[in-house]
Design goal:
Radius of gyration: 21 Å
Strand content: 5-15%
Bound molecules: pyridoxal-5'-phosphate
CATH superfamily of the largest domain: Type I PLP-dependent aspartate aminotransferase-like (Major domain)
Largest sheet: 7 strands, mixed
Strand order of the largest sheet: 2-8-7-6-5-3-4
Shape: globular
Structural class: alpha/beta
Helix content: 40-55%
CATH architecture of the largest domain: 3-Layer(aba) Sandwich
Number of strands: 12
Length: 380
């Protein structure tokens, strides 16, 4: 089996699953309970936050556990909008966000907020100048995806953060779900207010994740109940999931140090091999993209045909983002980049992880080199 759909989800590290099992069986007490088992679970939960904070260079009080990226984006975006609506009702994001961001903004629009969706240039990036031009005295939030989940393109978030330093009333949120452990994001310098993480994208478990929320900043909670996670995320804490998240983050960051260059090399090998196949158009600009995502189109072909043909050979890739692949609309990301409907309709995404081998990439490339001309012959 060759798995090249790591942007949809990654295989959890065995050590992560082991740590989850161990913590579930040993520390099953409710962290809110007053007895020893409750206290031990609470202490373990705090320890996981200290571990994550140590890795990210932040304070443990700045971590709020969630069920993953979708919840994290919703909490950061809606939580800010509701908290600051007395100050202003204008929000800025981009036209190339993940569905969990776009739909959160759409729901806010339905409630009366005004949203500017910045359109990227042909490189897929938006600029700090565009953000500056969109700011009004009503703006309360700017939310930008760091690494695009379809194309791998990296947004210039540090430049946007620098710009927003001059606008202290505007909060800055980053969807770092695809960037985490692949593309560095400095949190310690304080330019960013809120950041979303999802553990299953870095070999943790599905249904786990967290947001970074700068100390002192207030959000309106979306869930109400027992007041866990500083009253921002009520519900009995997933202590074992937190243990697994801390473990996955540590292991994936170690792999970043060891294997980042190798991952980049594999990605480049794929890009070069694909660009030599007739009928293929590359959508991922090498210099501007993360090391694990390759997006290309075969304008004359339905992507499902390639995906099924590869799947029969036990090679697993996807069209666009996993959340929207079941809908056969063109990619909103590629459309916003202005590549045209045909290319936006025929995109395929290959996504790697630190566990992907050279052999797997070579085999997948060989299959594509055979398959694409064969299938193009059929649709002629
Ligand atoms: C950029 C981005 N943001 C958010 C999400 C949602 O994360 P989750 O699957 O943990 O809800 C994803 C998932 O694909 C993503 O790629």
């Amino acid at each position: 089996m060759i798995y090249l759909d790591n942007s949809a989800t990654t295989r959890p590290f065995m050590e992560v699953v082991d740590s989850y099992t161990k913590a579930s069986l040993t520390f099953f007490g409710n962290p809110s309970s007053l007895h020893r088992m409750g206290t031990e679970a609470e202490q373990l939960l705090l320890k996981t936050k200290e571990q994550i904070a140590g890795i990210l260079g932040i304070s443990s009080s700045e971590i709020i556990y969630t069920s993953g990226g979708t919840e994290g984006n919703n909490l950061a975006i809606k939580g800010t909008a509701y908290q600051l609506k007395g100050r202003g009702t204008h929000l800025i994001t981009t036209a190339v966000e993940h569905a969990s961001t776009i739909e959160a903004f759409r729901s806010l629009e339905a409630e009366g907020f005004k949203v500017t969706y910045l359109k990227p240039g042909p490189t897929g990036q938006v600029t700090a100048e565009q953000v500056k031009a969109a700011l009004t005295n009503q703006t309360i939030l700017v939310s930008i995806i760091h690494v695009n989940n379809e194309t791998g393109i990296i947004m210039p978030v540090e430049g946007i953060g620098e710009l927003l330093k001059g606008y202290p009333k505007v909060r800055f949120h980053i969807d770092h779900v695809q960037g985490a452990t692949k593309v560095p994001l400095r949190l310690a310098h304080g330019l960013i207010d809120l950041v979303t993480f999802s553990s299953h994208k870095f070999h943790g478990l599905k249904g786990t994740g967290f947001i970074y929320k700068k100390d002192g900043l207030r959000l309106t909670p979306l869930f109400h109940g027992g007041g866990q996670e500083g009253a921002l995320r009520s519900g009995t804490e997933n202590v074992a999931g937190a243990v697994a998240t801390a473990k996955a983050l540590r292991m994936a960051m170690e792999l970043y140090e060891e294997r980042h260059d190798k991952l980049l090399h594999l990605r480049n090998q794929l890009l070069e091999g694909l660009s030599e196949i007739e009928g293929v158009v590359i959508n991922t600009p090498k210099e501007l993209a993360a090391p694990h995502i390759v997006n290309f189109s075969i304008p004359k072909m339905k992507p499902e045909v390639i995906i099924q043909a590869l799947s029969k050979r036990d090679i697993h890739v996807s069209t666009k983002s996993a959340c929207s692949t079941k809908r056969s609309e063109p990619s909103h990301v590629l459309l916003a980049m202005g590549v045209g409907k045909e290319r936006a309709n025929s995109a395929i995404r290959l996504s790697l992880s630190y566990l992907t081998t050279e052999d797997e990439v070579s085999k997948a490339l060989q299959e594509l080199q055979h398959l694409i001309p064969e299938l193009l012959e059929v649709v002629k």
